[in-house]
Amino acid sequence: MSRVMTRMNAWLRGLMAVAVAALVGTALLSGAARAEEKMKVAAIFSTPIEEPWVNQVHEALLKAQKELGIEYKWAESVPSADYARVLREFARDGYTMITGDAFAAEDVTRRVAREFPNIAFVFGSGEGTAEPNFSVYDNWIHEPAYLSGLIAGKMTKSNVVGSVAAMDIPEVDRLVNAFCQGAKDANKDVKCKVTFIGSFFDPPKAKEAALAQIGAGVDAIFAERFGVIEAAKEKGIIAFSNMSDQHELAPDTVVTGPVWDLWPTIQQAIKQVKAGVYTAQDYGTFSFMAKGGASLAPLYGWEQKLPPEVLKDLEEKKAAILDGSFRVNVNESTPLNE
């Protein structure tokens, strides 16, 4: 009997060992499969993908797809009435981070975020964060906007500089005000004109507004919206682009302009989600020049066209911004149309 029991115990131990090995192997396989799963990131945009603000977000996410191995999907030109539906579809399809612009649908975006507390909502927004999962960012590029104005103030012959912008909201106002302040700091005789077109993307209307300003004496213009550079090129005045490097649109017209790089923001958010340490936060400072989120577009040969004293003032101010010895004022009040 003892010999039979011994054999049975040995058989049971062998069977248990095989079962344990199988379970361990299954666990390792599922663990490896999880490790190979890509983090899914989605973006929702209210305007077409070529609109500069949206395009900078899109470019950062394409870079994340390449360098951080995420799976990326986006929806563009989404009306406010469809935001909730598209956001819920992304959330239910397994996207662990959703980003985009919430300006046109703040209440809707935040309401959907509350329905999915385990998903990271990281949105361009003019409002604050919301626990536990709603983070915010924006194009805090007032510093290079100021530097652009500094050049405009030195280069204007009529002493009238202009800005054609989307609408009278803080996110836009701070850029227009910074551009005007830079121009006035460079030239105390400068007057600033501003026109709001009432849209984030209406190039024909922006061009029409720019032509009207040029007709009123503007000879250096801030193209806060698409369409302005075309008018400047037609009328032979200098222009300053916004959000992205738009030199190629009109090399003899575009001097430079503020560039927004969302990569530092997107990289930080994705790494936090992957590490399981994501919390609702304001990523605003990641768009400042010192963090690499903002810069002045290259001059592309305009170094030879600009007077030496303009280049000297530009470099000194840029260095002062980067080392913290000079701060560009954040003025989000309605710009004066002088």
Describe the structure.
- With 338 residues, the chain is an alpha/beta fold.
- Helices cover 45% and strands 15% of the residues.
- The chain has helices at 2-36, 52-67, 83-92, 106-115, 142-155, 170-186, 203-215, 228-235, 263-275, 308-322, and strands spanning 40-44, 71-75, 97-101, 120-124, 134-137, 160-165, 191-196, 220-223, 238-240, 254-256, 258-260, 294-296.
- The strands form three sheets. It has a five-stranded parallel sheet, sandwiched between helices. A five-stranded parallel sheet has the order 7-6-8-9-10, sandwiched between helices.
- Helix 7 runs parallel beside helix 8.
Structure, briefly:
By secondary structure, the chain is of the alpha/beta class.
List keywords for this structure.
12 strands, five-stranded parallel sheet, 3 domains, 338 residues, disordered N terminus, alpha/beta, Rossmann fold
Query: Can you tell me the CATH topology of the largest domain?
Result: Rossmann fold
Please report the distance between the alpha carbons of the first and last residues.
108 Å
Count of individual helical segments: 10
What are the low-pLDDT stretches, counting only 5+ consecutive residues below 50? 1-12, 14-35
- Level-2 CATH architecture of the largest domain: 3-Layer(aba) Sandwich
Structural class: alpha/beta
- What is the strand arrangement across the widest sheet? 2-1-3-4-5
Order of helices and strands: HEHEHEHEEHEHEHEHEEEHEH
What gross morphology would you assign?
globular
What would the average pLDDT be, to the nearest integer? Answer: 90
What summary fits the major beta sheet?
5 strands, parallel
- Number of structural domains: 3
Number of DSSP-assigned strands: 12
Strand content: 15-25%
CATH class of the largest domain: Alpha Beta
The CATH superfamily label of the largest domain reads: Response regulator
Radius of gyration: 26 Å
In which range does the helix fraction lie? 40-55%
